[in-house]
Design goal:
Elements (H helix, E strand, L loop, with lengths): L1 H4 L6 E5 L12 E6 L9 H17 L4 E4 L4 H12 L3 E5 L1 H5 L8 H10 L2 E4 L2 H11 L4 E3 L7 H5 L5 H7 L4 E5 L8 H14 L4 E5 L5 H9 L5 E5 L3 H10 L2 E4 L13 H8 L4 E4 L4 H4 L6 E4 L4 H13 L1 H17 L2 H7 L1
Parallel strand pairs: 1-2, 3-4, 4-5, 5-6, 7-8, 7-10, 8-9, 10-11, 11-12
Helix pairs in contact: 2-3, 3-5, 9-14, 12-15
Length: 341
């Protein structure tokens, strides 16, 4: 989003000192002087780099501050807002916004930061609801701070190489980090039921992380047509979206972690693909039942399997949901997100 905003206003982006240097040659300033993300407010690095940031901020001549919820970023933004007497807007992203409010060391400073802010821009209705409940404040609004590169994922690809590798057969795709809350165990169990009705189905899983627990589960379930592809390039990813017959990701609550939004469903939607998702967290903002996908109960392999089978067997439904996916993705394009901001 920052490069698009920078086409209209002058932007300086402050990042933690330990951030990867991957910003590239964009038309805005980037400064790596913020303290590392930490839940320890008195850590020496936090104090040292807070002073550096505030000193640099005084020189900038800024009109607006916009920061994110992770400690200590929102707190630094509030300090800067008070010192410079300029408005502050805080972006709130799901788990990163909600979980710190359960930390007694930083809870009050976070609430103070939210009180200082003009508005808190929540990525989803779920995030807004939880923050209102936890803080008692009423200055939260829903404004997606993530967007999908619609044109990139909608652009037709040459699928001959991928088709030669994976076709014939129905292709089920998941794109996610391999961790508990993504619900890959749920979709693997669902795939077992799918195979009983659609023998030629294949399940492709793209994403980094520890695949061993899921490979072990697939083996215990007697599944052979499950393929862990690891991380792929953006171009390959776009091709896999267009190759698949249905996109599936069924996140679930794990500890305090929730799915704050659902950008991945929008990428699949931009490619014109129907999706199956769980009614969970911010997912329900971008997956509307029977409009661009099918919503199933959280942690329910049988319901997930029924939804997948229904889409794979009903071409008209798959087409309708895929078209709905394109419409939803257009609503959340980067250009639309910038206009809203």
């Amino acid at each position: 989003m920052t490069p698009l905003i920078a086409d209209r206003v002058e932007v300086t982006l402050y990042l933690p000192i330990d951030s990867p240097r991957r910003i590239g040659d964009f038309n805005f300033n980037v400064k790596y002087i913020l303290p590392p993300i930490s839940y320890h407010p008195l850590h020496p690095n936090v104090i040292k780099h807070t002073i550096c940031f505030l000193q640099d901020l005084r020189k900038g001549g800024y009109d607006i501050l916009q920061t994110y919820d992770s400690w200590p970023l929102s707190f630094l933004g509030a300090l800067g807002s008070k010192i410079l007497k300029i408005p502050l807007f805080v972006g709130a992203h799901g788990t990163a916004a909600i979980n710190p409010l359960f930390n007694r060391k930083i809870r009050q400073s976070l609430i103070w930061s939210y009180k200082v802010a003009e508005k808190i821009l929540c990525i989803s209705s779920f995030t807004k609801m939880m923050l209102e409940k936890l803080t008692g404040l009423s200055k939260f609004c829903i404004l997606p701070l993530d967007g999908v590169d619609y044109e990139f994922f909608a652009k037709p690809r040459d699928l001959s190489r991928l088709s030669a590798r994976w076709k014939p057969g129905k292709i089920i795709l998941t794109v996610a980090k391999l961790k508990e809350r993504k619900g890959i165990d749920v979709s693997l169990k669902a795939f077992k039921y799918v195979k009983e009705e659609i023998a030629d189905a294949k399940y492709l899983i793209i994403g980094g992380g520890d695949k061993l627990p899921y490979q072990t589960l697939a083996s215990k379930l007697g599944l052979e047509d499950v393929f862990f592809l690891g991380e792929v390039s953006d171009e390959e990813l776009a091709g896999y979206y267009q190759l698949c017959d249905v996109f599936v990701m069924t996140p679930k609550r794990f500890g305090g972690d929730v799915e704050g939004f659902g950008l991945i469903y929008l990428e699949a939607g931009a490619a014109g693909k129907p999706v199956v998702a769980s009614r969970h967290g911010g997912v329900i903002d971008v997956v509307k039942h029977m409009e661009n996908g099918i919503l199933v109960p959280e942690n329910d392999p049988k319901a997930t399997a029924r939804a997948i089978i229904r889409i794979l067997k009903d071409r008209d439904l798959a087409k309708k949901l895929g078209e709905g996916g394109r419409k939803m993705a257009r609503r959340y394009s980067w250009e639309k997100s910038v206009e809203s901001l």
